[in-house]
Amino acid sequence: MAVPPPPNPVPVASEATSAAVPDWLNKGDNAWQMVSATLVGLQSVPGLVILYGSIVKKKWAVNSAFMALYAFAAVIICWVTWAYRMSFGDKLLPFWGKAGPALGQKFLIKQAILPETTQLYKNHTVETATATPLYPMASMVWFQGVFAAITLILLAGSVLGRMNFRAWMMFVPLWLTCSYTVGAFSVWGGGFLFHWGVMDYSGGYVIHLSSGIAGLTTAYWVGPRLTRDRERFPPNNVLLMLAGAGLLWMGWAGFNGGDPYTANIDSSMAVLNTNICAATSLLVWTWLDVIFFKKPSVIGAVQGMITGLVCITPAAGLVQGWAAIIMGILSGSIPWFTMMIVHKRWTLLQKIDDTLGVFHTHAVAGYLGGILTGFFAEPELCALFLPVTKSRGGVYGGSGGVQILKQLAGGAFIIGWNVVVTSVVCVVIGFVVPLRMPEEQLLIGDDAVHGEEAYALWGDGEKYDSTQHGFISDDIGHPQPSIGATQVV
């Protein structure tokens, strides 16, 4: 007589050990890595899509949001087709990995490994073993892919309101391939800066410094917005802007908390420090606006929040809470000073139209954070994360002074590479399509570029027509904003 099967058999994928649950898999680490990746993805879609679509002038809402959305999709496809392995695969050059796909199941279901991360002493014995997280390559590829995507989206903030969308479609894969992959491999994937001991916990250099410098460089080559857009560029929806900013802030838990590649005590430190620094920076920026310009600016608060998040990123799991507060004070004041004072007095920065001030919020704050990491990195926390043993910040003596110099040099490499390569990319694209929209599109905005507008404000889907409605337009008749508290650059 046949034996009946058990009433509720356990699915193969849920068994303690099976083909879907190999011995090396840590379900907690895998779950946290996928959650972290999703949180970072939400920072872009919908976070920065909403933020960009709301912080710009009404006529550019659709175009700005769509630049972010398009970049996210394009980067993910390029990433799995060739760019992941250029960033985290086998070494081609000391600053670049070998291109290759990350699409086949044999590659994606095996245990994650970063093959060039074995750290050796000078006598060639192993100092720190190769990074082999306890989850599959598929989780690693997705996690690193959303980091690459947000970098391009942050860069886009410098050229909103005038870059030709067709040029942007070409720019995204070219810059990802020629610039981002170099920074990622050099600092994180086992390149020369990784083994030299440059500290970048979660992307202060790889993501923020590179996007800020590349954004400023791209803005130079694209050229400025229309004069009337530069003179008056009010947010079209401040409340939605705050919603996008909130998604950015909360998503940073995955941004910094996922970078140890495991759900451990260092990731907990990183998440707490991230929020301490961001909150401090937001308050300091707001206080400075009130003290000097008598008005608390909502845009200023968002900018201060962002600079705090950016500044703590290279240090998130490497510093103590008191250091995160100091970094927040500096990230809320130094980028404020460069944006509100230096920018208005430096002719070069005045000539380059950086739409959202990405240079200040990401390049200045990112480099500042990297340098401060060299000061405040705590030895015990460094030992939890870094491949170079006995690493420490300058305030802890020993080799800490050298670490500050390493941080300065590592940032200088990222700056130099991005200025040169971004310029080459822009010049090459310029031979194919114009980098800047034609004047007639710049005058009209979204309707001319996409045939779509963000808001139907004049009846049931009816577009605004000054000859019928008799209201002043978005560009004419409004009082000029007062010079003072933070405005969109």
TrEMBL record:
Membrane-spanning segments? 31-53, 65-84, 141-160, 172-193, 205-223, 235-255, 267-286, 298-316, 322-342, 363-388, 408-433
> Taking every annotated instance into account, which residue ranges of this chain make up the domain Ammonium transporter AmtB-like?
31-455
Key words of the record: Ammonia transport, Membrane, Transmembrane, Transmembrane helix, Transport
Record has Membrane as a keyword: yes
What GO biological process terms does the UniProt entry carry, in alphabetical order? ammonium transmembrane transport
Cross-referenced Pfam families: Ammonium_transp
Q: Supply one GO CC term from the record.
A: plasma membrane
In what way does this protein cross or attach to the membrane? Multi-pass membrane protein
As for subcellular location, the record says:
Cell membrane
Q: Has UniProt tagged this entry with the keyword tRNA-binding?
A: no
In terms of PROSITE patterns, this protein maps to: AMMONIUM_TRANSP
Family indicated by similarity: Belongs to the ammonia transporter channel (TC 1.A.11.2) family.
Q: Which NCBIfam families match?
A: amt (TIGR00836)
Q: What is this protein called?
A: Ammonium transporter
Q: Which organism is it from?
A: Eucalyptus globulus
